[in-house]
């Protein structure tokens, strides 16, 4: 016969781990949503001014379309560096150095990276 305490001792870590994972997913989803808001905000990231993005309205065509971003930037840190200061890789880029010139906060850039990485 299985004792109730043994079952609880066995299941408790599993339940706690599941709730931790669901909290992580919620945090990630919130970060992605924040990144989308900043990217689409015409007064902040304004990515749509130059890039076509999946469900953005009135996109620009000066920059490349933001699709297949995991394939284009397998290293997420390189994508972040590109947004922070695109002049590092291309001194002739007309993309604003969002981090270098304090156009966006580090938190906003991190959120945009998380969002763009889903595209």
Describe what this molecule looks like in 3D:
- The protein has 119 residues and is an all-alpha fold.
- The chain has one domain (33-116): Cytochrome Bc1 Complex, Chain D, domain 2.
- The protein is 51% helix and 0% strand.
- It contains 4 helices and no strands.
- The chain has helices at residues 4-40, 69-72, 76-84, 106-116.
- Helix 1 (4-40) packs across helix 4 (106-116) and helix 3 (76-84) packs across helix 4 (106-116).
- It is globular and about 70 Å long.
- The relative contact order is 0.15.
- The mean pLDDT is 85.
Based on the model shown, name its key terms.
mainly alpha; 0% strand; 51% helix; 4 helices
Determine the mean pLDDT.
85
Topology pattern, helix = H, strand = E? HHHH
User: Regarding CATH, which class?
Assistant: Mainly Alpha
Number of helices: 4
Largest sheet: none
Which geometry do the CA atoms define? globular
Helix content bin: 40-55%
The Cα radius of gyration reads 20 Å
Sheet-strand content, in percent, reads under 5%
